[in-house]
Structure formats: structure tokens, C-alpha cells
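User: Please fill in residues for this 178-position structure.
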């Protein structure tokens, strides 16, 4: 099974979740899907991917949806008691969610187990993940005191942003300009 087959299964899974919770959003990106996933154990990887999908569904729920103020348990998620050795909580599937999504978990686990390309996709996501967290200083041509804004570098690479005041494009502020 190739990454394309895994992607089809992910799309079908997401469509089921979308239908269940009245969502209109596209399948989340690989960075969301593979967050915290250990591909060495396909069953655990499928479990984590499903949690990532349900978490994303919970976060994407429109404020006019009847699901908007629903507790996480309605989405099949809960947070077990905090482990004092770890600084954060981790979502888990409720027993009802495990039963409900068992066919999805099984399909995903089989797809992950037979998909050699998934590890390459995960490596690419992890290699570029730092770009989202880092910010660079950017400025424009305003005189005498141009504003300095903090922008993720990938935004400066992917698009041209213009200053609302002077109309000039923002550019990365080099260390010598500070």
C-alpha cells in the first residue's frame, strides 16, 4: 500500500468525522495528522492520528454549530489524570469512541503498516517544522521610524506583504539594521 492509499483512508476517515460533526473543512495537513505519531507501531500511530483528527474537528467547529460548546467527551476525547512527570495533558479516546471508530483504526493501522512512504513524509514534516515556530523581524520603507513586525519566515518566503501606511513590501530586517 502506498501513501496514496493511506491518504484515501485518511480522507474517508475525515469525511466520516466531518459528517458526524457538521464540518466543512478539508483534511488537515500532514503536520497536524502526524503530530506525536510513532510510526514504528501502526496501531499506536493510527490511534494518535485519530486523536489528531478528532482534536482538529473539535477546534474547527463553527461557533454557530450545535457542537460548538460540546465537551470533549462528545467528540470521543478525554484527558486522563495528569501524570506528574509530564508537563502537559494528553488526549485519549473514550471507550465509546474506541468502539465507534474501531473500523477506522483498523484500516489506518493496516495502511500505516504497509506504507513505506509515510516515514519519508513524517521526516519532511519534522525537518520543516521549525519554520512555523521561528519568527523574523520585518520592516518597510516608512520614514522616519519604520515599524518592525515579527513574522514567521515561511510567510515572507511564500508571499509578499505590504505596509498599510507606505504601501511598500515588507522585507526581512537584517541584524545590521537593528
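Assistant: Residues filled in for all 178 positions:
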Amino acid at each position: 500500500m502506498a501513501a496514496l492509499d493511506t491518504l484515501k483512508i485518511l480522507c474517508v476517515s475525515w469525511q466520516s468525522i466531518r459528517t458526524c460533526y457538521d464540518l466543512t473543512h478539508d483534511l488537515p495537513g500532514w503536520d497536524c495528522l502526524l503530530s506525536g505519531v510513532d510510526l514504528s507501531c501502526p496501531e499506536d500511530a493510527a490511534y494518535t492520528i485519530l486523536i489528531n483528527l478528532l482534536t482538529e474537528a473539535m477546534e474547527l467547529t463553527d461557533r454557530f454549530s450545535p457542537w460548538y460548546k460540546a465537551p470533549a467527551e462528545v467528540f470521543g476525547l478525554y484527558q486522563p489524570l495528569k501524570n506528574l512527570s509530564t508537563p502537559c495533558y494528553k488526549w485519549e479516546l473514550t471507550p465509546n469512541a474506541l468502539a465507534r471508530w474501531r473500523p477506522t483504526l483498523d484500516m489506518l493501522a493496516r495502511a500505516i503498516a504497509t506504507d513505506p512512504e509515510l516515514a519519508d513524509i513524517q521526516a519532511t514534516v519534522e525537518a520543516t517544522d521549525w519554520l512555523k515556530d521561528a519568527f523574523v523581524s520585518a520592516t518597510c520603507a516608512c520614514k522616519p521610524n519604520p515599524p518592525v513586525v515579527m513574522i514567521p519566515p515561511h510567510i515572507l518566503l511564500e508571499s509578499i506583504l505590504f505596509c498599510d501606511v507606505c504601501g511598500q513590501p515588507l522585507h526581512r530586517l537584517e541584524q545590521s539594521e537593528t
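For context: Residues 3-128 form one domain.
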